[in-house]
Specification:
Elements (H helix, E strand, L loop, with lengths): L6 E4 L5 H12 L3 E6 L2 H15 L3 E5 L5 H15 L4 E4 L14 H29 L2 E6 L12 H20 L4 E8 L5 H4 L3 H8 L10 H12 L10 E4 L7
Parallel strand pairs: 1-2, 1-4, 2-3, 4-5, 5-6, 6-7
């Protein structure tokens, strides 16, 4: 994978999978515009990436549930780096509230961050990319979109929606822009570690390859889909789950 001379926007990039994706792209030469709602951790992450990989890495604080934040974020790429070549819609939240106690406000917040943010990220970046004649987008879904899991329904619903949004934009933005998704299984991240112990143990025991995936495993899949090696791939969902079943 060679991303030298290209600029990528990665949302939810302060920690976990988002940070691993940013590092992967930076290691292959990309300039980075990293966003997160967490100003302190996001700023530290961007500085670390720039220092470690010797590339340009800037941070823009953004709440992915707010369209105006996403407009500002996406416009920074061509303004400061000359183009917006790649977008990874990674920002997401997964509260562990039991289904029978889930309040309306939490439902709305999860759908706003996880699904609304992906739609408007694709909409805003897609227009920029169409205008410049090229681009690639990867949206982060989840195995929870593919099969029933012991996680909250609002998270599963939002991630299923990400797949639908991905397929729609792959048609709307073709042929200039490719749009794909990844659907990680259990990944060693803050999200998984926040789950109840019994839930965590159950979901990590379902795969053929054993153990739990690492953020770098997802980053490698995202990097492939963004790269020229996937130049004839659009509208797909790449499952990165160690062989967990969908039935």
């Amino acid at each position: 994978m060679i991303f030298k001379g290209k600029t990528a926007v990665v949302t939810g990039a302060a920690t976990g999978i988002g940070l691993a994706i940013a590092e992967n792209l930076a290691a292959h030469g990309a300039s980075l515009l990293m966003s997160d709602i967490d100003l302190e951790r996001g700023s530290e992450a961007a500085k670390m990436v720039a220092d470690k990989y010797g590339t340009s890495a800037a941070f823009v604080q953004a709440d992915s549930s707010k369209r105006e934040d996403l407009v500002n974020l996406m416009e920074q790429a061509p303004k400061n780096f000359g183009s917006l070549d790649m977008l990874v819609n990674n920002a997401g939240i997964c509260p562990v509230t039991p289904w029978d106690q889930l309040p309306e406000e939490e439902w709305d917040r999860v759908l706003a961050v996880n699904l609304k943010g992906v739609f408007f990220g694709c909409q805003i970046a897609g227009q920029i990319m169409k205008g410049q004649g090229h681009g690639s987008i990867v949206n982060v879904s989840s195995i929870s979109a593919r099969t029933a899991r012991n996680v909250s329904a609002h998270y599963s619903a939002s991630k299923a929606g990400v797949i639908a949004v991905t397929r729609s934009f792959s048609m709307w933005l073709a042929p200039e822009v490719r749009v794909n998704a990844v659907a990680p299984g259990p990944i060693d991240s803050e999200m998984i570690r926040a789950m109840p112990k019994e839930t965590r143990e159950w979901i990590t025991a379902q795969g053929l390859l054993g153990g739990i995936g690492q953020p770098e495993d997802v980053a490698d899949g995202v990097g492939f889909l963004l790269s020229n090696s996937a130049k004839h791939i659009t509208g797909i969902v790449l499952d990165i789950n160690g062989g967990q079943y969908f039935n």
